[in-house]
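Weekly structure sync - notes
Attendees: PM, LS, DV (DV joined late)
Agenda: review two folding runs queued last week.

Item 1: First target. Sequence and structure tokens pasted below for the record.
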Amino acid sequence: MATQVRHPDWLPAVRPPGARTFALLYALESIARASISSVIPIQAYDLLRDEQQVSILYTAVALLGLSATLFMPLAIARFARRFVYTAGVAALMAGSLAFLVDTLPAQMAGMLLRVIGASALSITLNLYIMDHIRKTEFVAAESTRMAWSTLSWTAGPTLGVFLYSRYGLFAAHAVVLVSATVLLALFWYFRLSDNAAIRPGKVRAANPLANIGRFVRQPRLRLAWLIAFGRSCFWTTFFVYGPILMVATGEGELAGGLLVSAGNALLFTALIWGWAGKRFGARNAMAGAFMVLAAMLFFAGTAGEAAPRLAAGFLLAAAFFAISLDALGSTAYMRAVRAYERPQMTAVYRTYLDLSELLPPLAYSVVLAFFGLGAVFVTLALFCAVCGAVTFRYLPKSM
């Protein structure tokens, strides 16, 4: 037939995308992000030499990044989804190049590019997952994705800080450039955009404000957002204020990287939490995790600067329970969102990450004006307790 296309022999050898496909892509993306996750706050602290100013910097970047996230559906509607994903990888690489300048404006530009890149990658990857993974398999697929990223988030922060402190900025950011290049090559090899199920991503996007209104009017989406926001607030605090606690108390930069890496090493327990969610119910697992997480954060804040190593131990215990929210939390959204509005609602849902990088530092900048660094963790503990109570009260038992 005239319309028939003969593809090269190697193309059919690529397997249809499944849970492992997305787990591999996420693991590579995690290397690009994790390798300098502890370097960024330390570099910002080296430039500003003040914890409160670092909080203000993170607040400003998150506010700008939030706008980019809300307008992401317009980009997805205008361009093929594969190009939005590609632009996200390019933004991560451009951010690392900006960090190499080592000035405050370049620091802010680098942080903003990373936020934009992470937003594009997160939204498009979630859309691909919802297109190719059955709803009944979301818990297992998300647990697998988290578990596969364990090595990235475990070795990455310590490796980045080691390279930064021993060999300088270029060595640390070279890891980002290499891993992002491999990620992009692998993404195009999988040819995810060739699947017909991707077509819903190219529907006309509504006004971002209208998308927010539709999202807010759906109770289950609001609850899914709160769960994701609560867990992301913990990780933002852990990644930023954990290393700052180690540096400010004289434990050293490497200790900050080791703390973050140790917390991320627990990601392999995502598979265990996935089993627990099926065995005891996602509602009970997530609500219980929030409550224990709150207790561990309170103890960490009480130890604070007077006993930084003890505080670090409590933070690691908190990370263990936060991982259950990573493994199970996104399923609340994936099961609730309507298929025909996934691109628009996913962009609004993704604001949990931007706001978790905006609101906590903003609140902490006020808290730090009156109290010590330990008060940051106590403040977060109170919020996590509220998240746990709301989750137990309103999340359906069938989850």
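Item 2: Second target, run right after the first with the same settings.
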Amino acid sequence: MSDKIEQNQTHHGMRGTNQSGLRAWNEKLLFTLLHTEGPMPKAEIARVTGLSAQTVSVIIRALEQDGFLEKGEPVRGRIGQPSVPISLAADGAYFLGLKIGRRSSEMILIDFSGTIRDRIVRRHEWPEPGAATEFALSASQELTMRLSEPQRDRVAGLGIALPFQLWDWAAALGAPQDVMDRWRSADLCGDLSMALPYPVFMRNDASAACGAELVFGDTSLPSDFVYFYIGFFIGGGVVLNSTLHTGENGNSGALGSMPVRAPDGRMVQLIELASIFGLEKRLILAGLDPDLPWQSPETWPIPETILTAWMDTVADAIAQAIVACLAVIDFKTVVIDGWFPASIRERLTRKVVEATARRELAGLITPAIQAGSLGIGARALGAAALPLTNKFLISSDAGLGSGLGQSVSL
């Protein structure tokens, strides 16, 4: 079908169609609207989507019978019939999210509302393809078996958040090069697709974290923003027109590879200055346990002098990267997030604001710089969001991001 449906610009660009044969599109439209805006009565759904009241009623009735939607308590106004809010049924579908990290692997199970229902975490010295496959299979089986039999039938897919080109970082990981080289030929997504009874998707871990911010995070973000996620290594994501832009090879937003100037004047990659492994190095030099940042995501028992020095270096390096990003795309907002306590995230974000203000910004427009909203769970949530968006939400590329605000060719 070649007809282009022009979408309503007044409400995130969502617009439905009453044409026959487009039931699946309208169902995704309703799922996306309720996921984004929360519970809404039928009349409001019809107004926002442009669908007839009859079409909305038919779709809602069918989806309610299928267990995907549920009715709330009637809300009585001063006049007329009470309105009944319609919402996503939390038990309507379940999604698995696998995060393969440099120091641990994590599998989560989320429900249709995006709430994390369960998780399994395994620590490792470094990620290895065979161990990753084994963990994914055992953890997915364990998590799904904890569900009731009817709930297990509603598991809709598995998403994977994985650092790309791991073989390039063997030295930083302290891992044998021959072990990391196994990732060159590994096909984790393909292997799991063959072994599991539901679809499997994969995305770069930092891009997945950025996608999680789109799907589950701050709904007030503008349509274009650049995202930095600080884990063992720093990475990032680029959002254009409310859609995560990953590029032909899935590697757009590889901000860790951006060249920046170190305090000693050398040109290095951002990853060397703005990653948690740099904090590990500082701890080792001070004779302290480099595992301190990983012992608890809620509190970091790290001496203040070491922590402040690390954050100052990180903030200055990210500020340089922000200026470079602004020279390419006029981003209105920069989002800073990472695997650290919320208090550290807030402090670091303020330092990035200050460091950016000290940079030369002639010819550029200073963006708003704000903290992310998901923190340590962003990558696993981004992984779980992959099957959610693919099956139930509107997206221009069947990946992360709602795709709202765009025309959709049908």
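Discussion on item 2: The radius of gyration is 22 Å.
Action: LS to circulate a short write-up before next sync.
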